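Q: What does the assembled structure look like for these inputs?
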Amino acid sequence: MSDVRISPRRPPPQSVRTDRPPAVRVDLGAAPPPAEGARPRERVFELRDVTVRYGGAPAVEGITFDILRNHITALIGPSGCGKSTLLRCLNRMNDLIPGATVEGSVLYRGSDLYAADVDAVEVRKRIGMVFQKPNPFPKSIYDNVAFGPRVLGERSDLDDIVEGSLRRAALWDEVKDRLKAPAYGLSGGQQQRLCIARAVAIKPDVILMDEPCSALDPISTMRIEELMEELKKDFSIVIVTHNMQQAARAADMTAFLTVDVSGDDHRTGRLVEYDDSSVIFTTPHDQRTESYITGRYG
Amino acid sequence: MSSGALEGLRRRRSLATAAKERAFSGAMLGSLLVAAVALVALLVQVVVAGSPRLNGDLLQRFPSSVPTRAGARSAIFGTIWVIGTVAATCIPVGVAAAVYLEEYAAKERWYNRLIEVNIQNLAAVPSIVYGILGLAFLVRGPLGLGQTVLAGALTLSLLVLPIVIIASREAIRAVPSSIRLASLALGATRWQTIRRQVLPAAVPGIATGTILALSRAIGEAAPLLLLGALTFITFVPEGLRSPFTVLPIQIFNWISRPQDEFRVLAAAAIVVLLVILLAMNALAIWLRNRYQRRW
Amino acid sequence: MPIGTALEGQESPAGAPPVLRGRRRWGEEAIRLVLFACALLSMATTLAIVVSLLEPTLSFFGEVDLVEFLSGTIWSPLFAEPRFGVLPLVTATVLVTGIALSVSIPLGLLTAVFLSEYSPRRLRAVLKPGLELLAGVPTVVYGFFALTFVTPLLQHLWLFGDPPGVFNAASAGIVMGIMIVPTVASLSEDAMGAVPQALRDGAYALGSSRLQVSTKVVVPAALSGIVAAIVLGVSRAVGETMIVLIAAGGTPKLSFDPADAMQTMTAFIAAAGIGDQPTGSIGYKTIFAVGSALFAATFVVNLVSIRLVRRFREVYE
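A:
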């Protein structure tokens, strides 16, 4: 059932020739053995042949990879390759776009996210999202953070929850004296950290971030990257970014998508390569990945 | 450069063109003047004519066939009763309809578009036709409410409902979708999002629209003529099932009498009506300026 | 549901699957239905208007000849020997509307041109609310104004023919015109404002004066919106009751002389309604018959206006 009207973003033209199958490292069996001393590699999402269509034409097609728990996973690629579309699959925000259909399977901790009896509202309580442009509510800072817990029925510990969330978002010291001030009075970077605090307040399992720093200045960007490093101890983070340096700096795993233009001008995103960031950015397996990260195109 | 070329740049308009321009400017300012003068003349005339009877008697006394003993008490209280009932019925239904049309209705479906066109049409139906509707369905006919406050209020509610719906829709539409997305992404349901985020943000616009609708309802006389408000009412309404009259009807009543003294009463009552309307519109403007958010 | 339970079943990935199944949200469905019902009320209103008009009208034409109704020139339905020719009412409506338009179109358009093309921003900020004020005056007050101010004025200034009596169409028409000026001006100004600045700039660059740009470029470009505004004004004039009831009188008379007293369709309906006709009597039914004619007329006019507005919006969006 479609409610909020959002027009799907139309990707600008990109012509990429696909003459090789994607070089994706995915274990369809047991999780890969961790490197010495590294964190355990549990899977929190398993995507198998995921295709998303907006009214017929596929925006992304045949996406297959795993997202690991307590890792920061970055989705990178040129404009229009469907990174945000893919991200929205993970918390069923695509349901809100009229005409959007999702094929393939998305398993969240082993359960089908798109099963018939799954309630999208429940999904979003576990898989939170931070948007590209900070979108605090037209309320006080306190009420912004407290909104999620209140919706869940929490009444008594709101003060503690709000403080805890603001601390985790590295915003507490800046706003602790003006919790009742309107959120719109904060700067862009502060608003985005407020949105992160808001998402954290309901104690989700996963936090999705859709280009969270693209509207911010470099210093705010750096603070949020530091934040993400802290947050990944308790949450799994998936971030869409068009900033390769950010992915190289901050992400543990990186997925590179590219865009194919078919004969009748349909632009479809496809997964090219998915690996540790250190591999992607130093010795990528696929020629297209290398072209992208060295700036030959995109 | 020869001076001949520069000559052409000097403003050399023919007398005819200049006269045309002046005439047009005159016509425009004349129109403004006529409208302004009409408004001022109306106000001044009404105040001057009514001032002898602008006193407490107007509020204290009931209508009478003897002008010196007449007042508008029944009409003033009748107006309060009727408008209060209109507000109680019209605002919830109008806002609910607006919420449905903006938040739930799939715009492509034929029945939803039909509803939208219908509301536009209803906004332009003559007010007296609503009186006919009230007469046939509410006063007589199926509901058989008789010539009561409730019948009058329901009729006026139907009349101003399109105004409430249209204004509320605009206010709801103005709330950015990013707010809805943020709320939904936190695991709120659609109704929770509407109730806790969208409606509170839309309240200033809804309030302004509501006040405009009620202003329209206060000044309406034609539909109520058909509902029996023009009878000789010498009491304050005792409830929703009570006969009634309202200020515009009382004014009309007094205008229709031959004696000059009744003209004075009519003018005085008009002043009261205009003051009420002015207060309401000032409130709406103040609300809009104070609380309207620029998204 | 306290936050702790949000994490139920998510402890070990190898253990129980996360609880994603929600109970069917019945509350949400119920709310949706209630809201839909409120939106449906508007349909119910239209239906009710049509139904309430239809039955008595059909019954009326069971007793009265349709041809006589549409072409007869005498309207005296409540006399001992009733005559049911509706033309006097129609011509009265047309005449008053015509007078109103002859006042409101020039005043409204000139005001609109001024607001849109000439006036400085600060003046506009004062004038627009002033127009709204004019639109907010109750019609009964306009009626009073027509009867007590405009009619004596006309009686003094009348130039040709017999001066008007206490009740006359001219006074009602003029005041109705003033009442409609805000409608015409406001919508026309919106239409003119929607004309792209590029069109004006092109004309100015060719050396046109502001008068020429306004009248030869902007007004033609905004024409469908202006026509829509005028049509809406017509609709309001046709449907207006109190002004004509008070100032034009209650005597049906087939005449095109503005100085005459006459009764419009709306005034008749009001007068008959005041008279508290017994349900089912012929007098009662005439209310609905004339009401049907009125509703049909304004319905057609409104359809035209809505279509025009849609067309004008399409041109620039």
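Chain B has two domains: 3-53, 58-291.
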